[in-house]
Specification:
By secondary structure, the protein is of the alpha/beta class. The chain has 3 helices and 3 strands; from the N terminus they run βαββαα. The two termini are 18 Å apart.
Length: 71
């Protein structure tokens, strides 16, 4: 599963590529314009970390991701 967060739907890139490769893609946007309203960290917390977690993004987001994955 790929949990993908962006500020808006217009900033999402490559979602279809991941889906075509067989990944389940869960999307969150800060403004709710695509997928769930909120952040990728919000989705991870709602779903629960069920395996390895890899992140890419700004340091504050990575810190929040690490904290969420450790719960």
């Amino acid at each position: 599963t790929l949990i993908y967060g962006a500020r808006t739907a217009g900033r999402l890139a490559g979602v279809r590529d991941f889906e075509e490769a067989g990944a389940e893609v869960l999307v969150a946007t800060d403004d709710g314009s695509a997928g769930a309203r909120g952040t990728a960290v919000d989705l991870l917390e709602a779903r629960g970390a069920a395996g390895p977690v890899v992140g890419c993004g700004p340091l504050p987001m990575l810190r929040a991701l690490a904290a969420a994955a450790g719960r």
